[in-house]
Design brief:
By secondary structure, the chain is α+β, with helices and mostly antiparallel strands. Strands 7-8-4-3-10-11 form a 6-stranded mixed beta sheet. The chain has a 4-stranded antiparallel beta sheet with strand order 6-5-9-12. Strands 1-2 form a two-stranded antiparallel ribbon. A hairpin with a 4-residue loop joins strand 3 and strand 4. The protein is globular and about 40 Å long.
Length: about 150
């Protein structure tokens, strides 16, 4: 697969994120990590805020990124969208941005509706994979156009 370098980076031919939602029994918390391409997220946040955004040049990265994530990643209970998770933070690794969240709860997530439409407004071909793991059980959910909200089983 060939990519074209732009400003010293390579463009990728697809738009996707990968997330894990893993239950930590010791702390009774669901730990969520989401990996996004930095260039995609930079464009998405720029469109979201209406002004150019840069992870390197913006001192307000945390509140801007948190607001963006809360707008596109949430949980629906009784047809109401909420974001009952704690914002832990983020880090940059190579050309990826890792976002970290927590849901303090010892309850199963089965039956809960999750919305994961991160970057959907910026890229029509965007897909977001979320893997949910508790004990030895692992389920994967693929969020994409017309399927941004899914019921966890």
């Amino acid at each position: 697969m060939m990519t074209t370098p732009i400003f010293g980076r390579s463009l990728h031919p697809f738009h996707s994120s990968v997330g894990d939602c893993i239950y930590n029994a010791k702390d009774k918390v669901w730990e969520i990590s989401i990996r996004l391409f930095e260039d995609d997220l930079t464009l998405g946040i720029s469109q979201f805020t209406g002004s150019p955004f840069s992870f390197q040049k913006n001192p307000q990265v945390d509140p801007i990124l948190e607001k963006y994530v809360r707008n596109y990643f949430g949980i629906q209970v009784n047809q109401k969208r909420t974001t009952p998770y704690r914002w832990i933070g983020w880090e940059s690794v190579d050309d990826m941005i890792w976002v970290y969240l927590e849901i303090p709860s010892d309850q199963e997530l089965s039956g809960v509706f999750i919305e994961n439409s991160l970057l959907a407004d910026s890229f029509p071909d965007q897909t977001n994979l979320l893997q949910v793991v508790r004990n030895a059980q692992k389920r994967s959910y693929l969020f994409r156009k017309n399927e941004w909200v899914q019921r966890l089983e």
